Amino acid sequence: MxxxxxxxxxxxxxxxxxxxxxxxxxxxxxxxxxxxxRRLVSLGIGPGTELEVVSVHPFRxxxxxxxxxxxxxxxxxxxxxxxxxxxx
Length: 88
Hints:
By secondary structure, this protein is an alpha+beta fold. It has helices spanning 34-42, 76-79, and strands at residues 4-5, 13-16, 25-30, 50-56, 63-67, 70-74, 83-85.
């Protein structure tokens, strides 16, 4: 699991979307680079967005999340760049 200490998180950990398990809920903290940012914002995912993990496909397959009632599949490489925090 990719984690690191961060004082802005209540638990002190920053996770990536790829670290979450099915059913996990999180709030997006950071999206990464500008190109990634534009793509995800067009899908309704931006800093502060709350999402729920619907499924995590095996063998480095996509992570499917629910955002505002819609399901979005995000490639595993991209999911590893999206920093999230689990709600308290």
